[in-house]
Give the backbone structure.
Amino acid sequence: MRTFVGFYILCLLIGQDLPFLAADDANVINDSTQNLCFANRLSDFLPPPYSNVSDNMPCTPLWNTFVLRYSENRDNVMTIIVSALYTTGWVGIGFSKEGRMVGSSAMVGWISKKGHAKIKQYYLQGTERDQVVPDQGELQLQKVPPVVALHGAMIYLAFQVKFSVRVPRRAVILAFSTAYPSKLGRLTKHDDKTTVIVDFSKASGATSIKTTTSTEKTKHGVMAILGWGFLLPVGAILARYLRHKDPLWYYLHIGFQFTGFIFGLAAVILGIQLYNRIQPDIPTHRGIGIFILVLSILQVLAFFARPQKETKMRRYWNWYHHWIGRISLFFGAVNIVLGIRMADNGGDGWKIGYGFILSVTLLAFVVLEIFRIRGAIGSPSSHTPPSFEAHPNSTSV
């Protein structure tokens, strides 16, 4: 009983202090972001040639306060001006063939503590800081020098780049940090980033990968909550408190655990696809996901390796089966909380939804445990499972 109570209370306490982004927060292009296109006349403070073309450029709000202006000539030379609200640190825009951060080339600009404007090209060889190499990259910058300008609360990065072929839709990576780069130009870790598909053939054609990845994140979260947050805990509760309904408890237990495993496996598969697509920096969430996948596979294998109840190995198998089940449920719940915490589109809905499921499950456990202590339900001493039983995920304690 203490194991279950500690598990659920810990998860409930963790879930009470989650930072969530509201629906009108950073990832929504609202009217105030749209107005950034008309806040300033760029020709008033940008040097030529950017001042000559900037007022006639298509202007597209992308993400947070990031705004993109662009134009392209017949030689596939594109003039790009990206702006964002700025206080400290750096802002950057990168270009990637597949929308991934690794392997992309980026232009990053900042205003130093002494007020000097800095802009560099970076090549992102990997996710570690020393793998973000300054003054390297695959962008074919033109002879016109790149420019960084601070006007009011906005920072502007302007540069010209030539692409080998004209591609209407390009993956653009946006990122920022409030910490300054080092004196040698080494970037600090980004505070946030996203990938956007920009349709450069239109004046207002930007569609965020977040529209797609948001749906994928939703599917991943729903599968994980249904599997690890609902079906598997319910299956464990049935195995503990429904023993007086033999063999009904066994069939229900098997059904819930098998279905929960399928949903959990689907969540892992969707998570792998999502990771390969956007390359998020989530080592803890990813590591725990792989860990509980291994544990769940071990539980399925235990279904087929269950010894006869008359053998001495049966007792050790029960210990293994019960504790692997408990550990799996614990880390499954913790990983759900971590996933909600890191989701860009978390919102209060996820917090309320999983909090409700967790609270109801805890309440059911407490009530049923009271009945069990009184001997009204779940007495395993007078009921034994059928001889062909091979329950894979029993968590009876």
